[in-house]
Specification:
heterodimer; A: alpha/beta; TIM Barrel; 53% helix; 14% strand; B: Rossmann fold; 2 domains; 8-stranded mixed β-sheet; GFO_IDH_MocA-like_dom (chain B); Oxidoreductase (chain B); Gfo/Idh/MocA-like_OxRdtase_N (chain B); nucleotide binding (chain B)
């Protein structure tokens, strides 16, 4: 994995500290061109991996990437599934069963039969596989070397103790997509224990990590200790603590942590993308020397 | 260890179950639901014991406390049976379909000294807690107006839905969505006692309201407005906010960001004259297990701690949820 990964929250009005900023982003990134232009800024700054939710709009971004193979030949996407609000809103409206009916693909006779059988025979891992395939369709022909399960599902399964389902996701991604499975979580130490317990060693885990202890269940000390002493391929996110820490200070803390393979960040302006990349590269140099 | 059972493993129930499953002081002794699909998934992949009859679960597992996350129409009967067996109860919002039902359950809990809580999670959001503190301390002076709002994309197309689209089962925007805002107004300011006019509007739903607008009066005679719409797709998810105008300042807060304006130099510690902005990240304590917002874990923690006896049972108790039910019927009857 590359040292710096570019995220997509800013494109989809996900802002953890301000509803007003969220709306401003929604306006700024109304057109797909605005997203593509910003992605190009990230590429110019030397980032070739885009980590994104399986949002409907990403399908259109994928079309642009496929249409320009020369320009995007080194470009990689790390899909993160599912786009949870799509399902959460559907569950409020349709219930759990209604949501499965709506989203398990049913247009082709074949999948309908397979999906229908899965619901009847209660083969839930099969239902999950159908949902993964549905979410992965938009990435056909694009390099997706790591595929993630979103935190709301990872953590839901973690709390419910549904380890087999986490393992099922892991195994299916390896087998069907020849890609590496990853897990996003807000409960990193607990997830690592659970995955290791299920025989998944050195897992790719993307988690919140920052100087101010924001969304780090179990606390910063435990997180730092886990990084120092355990085996995992760590990606840190929410490194600015939702915007609570000055960027340079936040990046210095993250860059100097041991055992962090990649840093995920999102920014919506060219200047912020360049500054972030520049800061991380500089702190990395300081660390080496 | 507190032995906990759960009735209703739908959207909220599953979320509670996951938080309870990860809680160090909780042993989940049973889960009850009527959906075969949900039950077989839990039976196959989790360690929870599953039931289809909640009374059987209660008799067999003898829980200290039970979470009720069923459609609202079942709350009264289920909670009454549980309280009669001296079981502590956490029930989802809205509390009951009528004021009389809520009153009966509230008096049962005080007679039996049982811990009782309702799932109005906004009271565990750091920004709203700070708003309450500022108002109660008189930081913005005498309140002359408030505006409680919530918008989100729940029903954005015409179609038949679930119990949430059935008015007799506790469905509709007023019961389901606006109740959160009403509960916040009741808590931060004073209980709603009158509506000077309400509009309940259907936008896409056939049988229930999708938007609620109302002019409100509180027990201390403060007046203000309620504006809630769950058919607004310009919001990615539910966004709840409150604006309060006082003679010494003004507060605008949502679940993420608190903005306070003070007219004078004399302000509470950490604030100064003019605009002040604070973020939920500065105002929210860490939780042991995070699922979908600190407040969901914090409300479960609070309930479990009340059962253990570590905290008083005075946030979101039945009494306060009954006041919210009462305000819902005031608004409904005024339309």
């Amino acid at each position: 994995m590359e040292r710096i990964l570019y995220g997509d929250n800013q494109f989809f009005a996900v802002n953890h500290i301000s509803d007003a900023k969220s709306m401003a982003q929604s306006i700024k990134f109304k057109s797909d061109e605005a997203i593509i232009r910003t992605l190009d800024y990230a590429i110019e700054a030397g980032i070739n991996t885009f980590m994104c939710t399986t949002h409907d709009r990403i399908a259109r971004i994928c079309n642009v990437i496929r249409a320009n193979p020369g320009k995007y030949k080194d470009f990689k996407i790390y899909p993160c599934m599912p786009y949870a609000h799509k399902y959460a809103n559907a569950v409020t409206e349709l219930g759990i069963q209604g949501t499965i009916k709506q989203y398990v693909p049913g247009n082709l006779f074949g999948t309908m039969f397979k999906g229908g059988m899965a619901v009847v025979s209660k083969d839930f891992l099969k239902i999950m596989e159908l949902l993964i395939d549905a979410e992965m369709k938009m990435f056909k022909g694009i390099n997706t070397p790591v595929i993630f399960l979103q935190n709301v599902i990872t953590d839901l399964l973690l709390g419910l103790g549904m380890v087999e389902v986490l393992k099922g996701f892991h195994d299916y991604i390896l087998k069907k997509y020849y890609a590496e499975p990853g897990f996003i979580t807000m409960n990193m130490p607990k997830l690592l224990d659970t995955l290791e317990g299920a025989g998944i060693n050195n897992p790719i885990i993307c988690f919140s990590m920052n100087k101010v202890n924001f969304r780090m269940s179990g606390g910063k000390d435990l997180y730092e200790e886990t990084l120092k002493t355990r085996k995992l391929r760590a990606i840190t996110m929410q490194v600015l603590g939702g915007g609570a820490i000055p960027p340079k200070e936040a990046l210095e803390y993250i860059s100097k942590l041991p055992n962090v393979e990649s840093i995920l960040f999102g920014a919506s302006s060219k200047a912020n993308i360049e500054n972030t990349v520049h800061n991380i590269r500089n702190f990395d140099k300081e660390k080496i020397s | 260890m507190v032995k906990v059972g759960l009735i209703g493993a739908g959207k909220m129930g599953i979320s509670h179950l996951s938080i309870l499953g990860a809680h160090p002081d909780v042993q989940v002794v049973g889960v009850c639901d009527t959906s075969k699909l949900v039950l077989s998934a839990l039976e196959k992949y989790s360690k929870f014991k599953c039931y289809t009859d909640y009374l059987k679960m209660v008799e067999k597992e003898k829980p200290d406390a039970v979470f009720v996350a069923t459609p609202t129409k079942f709350h009264f009967d289920f909670v009454k049976e549980l309280l009669a067996r001296n079981i502590h109860v956490f029930v989802e919002k809205p509390f009951c379909l009528t004021e009389e039902q809520g009153m009966e359950l509230t008096s049962m809990t005080s007679e039996r000294n049982l811990v009782n809580q309702v799932g109005y999670h906004n009271k565990f959001v750091g920004t709203f807690r700070e708003v309450k503190k500022l108002v109660k301390d008189g930081a913005i002076g005498e309140v002359n107006h408030f505006m409680g709002e919530a918008y989100g994309p729940v029903v954005t197309k015409k179609k038949e839905g679930t119990w949430r689209s059935n008015p007799s089962e506790g469905g509709g925007c007023l019961m389901d969505y606006a109740s959160h805002v009403i509960d916040l107004i009741n808590d931060i300011l004073s209980p709603i006692t009158a509506s000077k006019g309400s509009i309940l509007k259907s936008i896409y739903s056939k049988r229930v309201d999708d938007a609620v607008y109302s002019l409100l009066e509180l027990s201390d005679k403060t007046t203000g407005m309620l504006s809630v719409n769950w058919s607004d797709e310009t919001y990615r998810k539910m966004s709840t906010s409150i604006t309060i105008n006082g003679d010494k300042g003004k507060i605008i807060s949502d679940a993420n960001e608190l903005k306070v304006y003070f007219k004078e130099d004399h302000c509470p510690e950490g604030y100064s004259k003019g605009w002040n902005v604070k973020y939920v990240t500065d105002l929210t304590p860490q939780v042991d297990f995070y699922l979908r917002g600190e407040e969901y874990s914090a409300q479960v923690d609070y309930f479990i701690n009340a059962v253990i006896g570590n905290v008083p049972n005075n946030i979101n108790n039945f009494q306060s949820a009954w006041l919210t039910d009462r305000a819902i019927s005031i608004i409904k009857n005024q339309k």
